[in-house]
Design goal:
- This protein is 56% helix and 8% strand.
- It has 470 residues and is α/β, with parallel strands linked by helices.
- The strands form two sheets. Strands 5-4-3-6-7-8 form a six-stranded mixed sheet, sandwiched between helices.
- The longest helix has 34 residues, at 165-198.
């Protein structure tokens, strides 16, 4: 059991969950007390000791089902017998399985529903030992043949004469919930058989999905972007709380020896009340220059959303968007603004296209120098977001050098993997010497760490190692 638990912890770490050695030891000690007989209790025990964030629960559930979802052959035999008895047929033919499903949905028979899931996988999945096919393919084949929606519709039609519209709607939602329960049972059965065939590690690796904070923002699917959106607000609240706490801790400052000695004179020279030299850290002005061409637009949107959610950490925030021309877009981000709405307005209203609508960093920097360089002061922190791919136009690196000379610091956030920098039309190497730091930032986890460093440079000094990976 120890080896299984260690492998389970390794899988959680590979999926991105922060599980420490102490937490792994706590989990082992807790399991030694609760035992393994009750799978529901085991799930609760491991979840309580290993999962610290609610948004990591789905990844934990997937890994748990792979590692601890096996059931005994005896229970499978009982399930097959239950379906045979329910259908009244020894072979469990397709029509009889549909009749059994009708009965299970009508009677809320969970045991029969679980048995139907197992028999449906037997009949329809076409699983073959050793075939390198993912569970999603098998699930699709089973659901297509089982026709759960058709059975639900038939059941509703049979019940319709006794129902008013509201009752029918409630019944439909209840049946859809039971249909989803069946889908989960089928998915679990397919997973169980894949584990038996290929082993736990191989199946866990196949089913592993990145956590929302580790999703690559430039390659994310629509559903993944929705997941990122869902975790962004809790992330900003947590980050704001952490930064506020660190600011309060810094206010105490260093020991003021001279003031302490002077204060001690009223106590006969005994320094009973240490005096502290209170720092007065200034909040920087923040200036954002965001490439919104192509896939960079998604990355820029989430960067703007996080920065504006943290705007109270800065004395002022100004935002500029560009493709081959540059326009200030601060006006789109008023108090209470929905950033998705602001992003849509930027796309339709901002004057960011000059010639052909392909990125031209050199021209955008020229426009910024001409119109806004005088606004940059020694308190200004400039953040440029983009892949530094200028479509073989002049990089105009001297313009960035002028901005860096006027500003407190220039940071560059590049959402491309570092190995792609300075390949093809990338001119990242020409801009990097004029930046205090250049970051590879492809996901929310890296973006959070960057905001924390820029906001409190005294806590995380600029000489720290570059951010990369998770």
């Amino acid at each position: 059991m120890r080896d299984v638990l260690l492998a389970f912890v390794d899988e959680l770490r590979a999926a991105g969950l922060p599980v420490s050695m102490v937490e792994a030891i706590d989990a082992a000690n807790a399991v030694a007390i609760t035992g393994l007989a009750d799978r529901r209790l085991l799930r609760a025990t491991l979840g309580a000791t290993l999962v610290k964030n609610v948004r990591h629960h789905e990844a934990f559930e997937t890994a748990f089902e792979v590692f601890f979802g096996m059931e005994s052959p005896a229970s499978l035999s009982d399930a097959s017998l239950a379906v045979t008895m329910a259908t009244g047929a020894s072979g469990g033919e397709d029509g009889d399985l549909g009749a059994a499903l009708y009965r299970a949905l009508r009677d809320h028979d969970e045991a029969l529903l679980a048995a139907i899931a197992r028999r449906a996988v037997d009949n329809f999945s076409g699983m073959e030992p050793g075939r390198p096919v993912g569970g999603t393919y098998y699930l699709y084949r089973v659901l297509r043949q089982l026709d759960t929606e058709g059975v639900i519709e038939a059941l509703l039609n049979d019940l319709a004469p006794e129902m008013d519209p509201l009752q029918r709607r409630l019944a439909s939602e209840d049946l859809q919930g039971r249909g989803e329960q069946l889908r989960q049972l089928i998915r679990a059965e397919i997973r169980r058989r894949l584990v038996a065939d290929r082993g736990v590690a191989a199946v866990a690796r196949t089913l592993r999905r990145p956590l929302a904070e580790d999703i690559d923002l430039t390659r994310a699917t629509r559903s993944e972007l929705r997941e990122v959106e869902r975790v962004l607000h809790p992330l900003t609240r947590r980050l704001a709380t952490r930064l506020g706490r660190r600011r309060r801790q810094r206010r105490r400052g260093r020991l003021d020896v001279r003031s302490t000695i002077r204060r001690s004179l009223s106590y006969g020279g005994i320094p009973l009340e240490p005096q502290w030299r209170t720092p007065n850290p200034s909040r920087p002005d923040l200036i954002l220059l965001c490439d919104i061409s192509g896939s960079m637009a998604t990355f820029a949107r989430f960067t703007l959303q996080l920065i504006y959610a943290m705007s109270h950490q800065f004395s002022r925030v100004r935002a500029f968007a560009f493709i081959d021309a540059l326009d200030e877009v601060t006006r789109f981000f008023g108090p209470g603004t929905d950033v998705s709405v602001a992003a849509a307005r930027i796309s339709s209203e901002a004057k960011v296209v000059w010639l052909d609508g392909h990125s031209d960093y050199g021209n955008a920097l020229d426009q910024f120098i001409e119109s806004f360089l005088s606004d940059i002061t020694s308190r200004s922190v400039v953040i440029v977001t983009g892949d530094a791919r200028s479509n073989y136009h002049d990089s105009n690196a001297p313009a960035l050098a002028r901005i860096a000379d006027a500003a407190k610091a220039v940071y560059w956030l590049n959402p491309e993997p570092r190995r792609y920098w300075d390949t093809g039309d990338s001119v990242m190497g020409e801009y990097a010497p004029h930046c205090r730091r250049v970051f590879e930032v492809r996901n929310l986890r890296q973006l959070e760490r960057f905001v924390e460093e820029v906001t409190l440079p005294a806590v995380q000094p600029a000489q720290a190692a570059p951010i990369g990976g998770r």
